[in-house]
Design brief:
The chain has eleven helices and eleven strands. By secondary structure, the chain is an alpha/beta fold. The chain is globular and about 55 Å long.
């Protein structure tokens, strides 16, 4: 599928801070090409010796990330294509997990599905008070299988199940802060940006070796995620081919 020409992923490095910014005109949704580019940019920033900390953000003010692209989901016609698409989310989460630098997520607006997964995978997530969250996958006949381990690791199994089962309901930024998904919540975008850059500058001046060791400690026990998330991608890849899911996605697209 050809990606919208206005969509992009770009990285800027300044004073040891790599800022990775992504955009898609459909509420920062994530088609396969965006996912591949995001994973590649995170991996490259992790290998760049000049970079001390990574900031992950999206363009615009209203939505941080709308999750999977419905246009691309409805175009999936076979299992290998489905696995390839959902493996894109696995690649982004694993790139964040394995990057030897801390990843700060700046969440300025609502996060859905894969967007919640990215916010959960980040090492430190700072959000605005407008950044409500929803795992909507079950509502379209799939399930938050690929992002589930990252979300559950951050908020615990009870809160993960609440999000996953009540798939049509938003949970507020305050809820996400209470559950540990967001480390901080700020009332304005200006305050959000100040907090993000304040932390990023502090980390850029910190001991890289100590930060790498601390990240390894924080992510201990997830070494099997390379295989686990691909296995989960297969679950979603099978379900997206079902008549139930095809009809549900078409209903969402027609709204």
């Amino acid at each position: 599928m050809i990606m919208d020409q206005s969509a992009f992923v770009k990285t800027e490095v300044h004073n040891g801070i790599a800022t990775i910014n992504f955009f898609h005109p459909q509420s920062n949704s994530l088609p396969g090409e965006i996912l591949r580019k995001l994973a590649a940019e995170i991996e490259q920033a992790g290998k760049n010796q000049v970079v001390k900390v990574i900031v992950l953000k999206s363009e615009g003010e209203k939505a941080f990330c709308a999750g999977a692209s419905f246009d691309e989901l409805i175009a999936i016609k076979d299992l290998p294509t489905g696995i390839t698409f959902f493996s894109g989310f696995a690649s982004v989460i694993n790139a964040i997990r394995k990057a030897p630098k801390f990843v700060i997520a700046r969440v300025q607006g609502k996060a859905v599905g894969g967007g919640v997964g990215i916010a959960s995978a980040a090492d430190y997530t700072i959000a605005s008070s407008h950044a409500a969250v929803k795992l909507s996958e079950l509502a379209v006949g799939i399930g938050p299988f690929v992002v589930g381990p990252a979300v559950e690791r951050k908020v615990g199994s009870a809160a993960f199940c609440q999000l996953a089962i009540n798939a049509s309901e938003w949970q507020s930024a305050a809820w996400a802060r209470e559950k540990g998904l967001y480390a901080e919540v700020h009332d304005s975008v200006q305050a959000l940006d100040h907090a993000v850059m304040n932390l990023a500058n502090k980390l850029a001046a910190s001991n890289p070796e100590a930060m790498q060791m601390l990240k390894q400690v924080a992510w201990a026990g997830t070494e099997h995620w390379d295989e686990l998330l691909i296995e989960r991608a297969g679950m979603s890849g099978r379900l997206v081919l079902s008549d139930f899911t095809i009809n549900a996605i078409n209903q969402f697209k027609s709204k």
